[in-house]
Fold this protein.
Amino acid sequence: MNNDIKNSKYEGFDGVYAFKNANNILGFVRFNENYQVEYISVYPIIRHQGIAIKLLQLAKHKKKNELILQDPINYIGLEILISLNQWK
């Protein structure tokens, strides 16, 4: 999986930033027109490598202001938000 990470890139389009390689989306953040983060996910094998933080930073930079993190809709989102508590 390390080669997948090295050969991956961040892309943004229509309310989504994704971290992807040639074959897969490895992580993404989705936000609405008010820049409320609706969903964030990172592929389990590559978690704890700063990918979620980078995705949120890209969304924050696009808004040029603070993001609003909506209540998580699933366990994985809750886990990510707990681990990012210091990021807020």
Remarks:
- The two ends are 29 Å apart (CA to CA).
- Residues 35 and 63 are 7 Å apart (CA to CA).
- Residues 2-83 form a domain with the Aminopeptidase fold (CATH 3.40.630.30).
- The chain has one domain: 2-83.
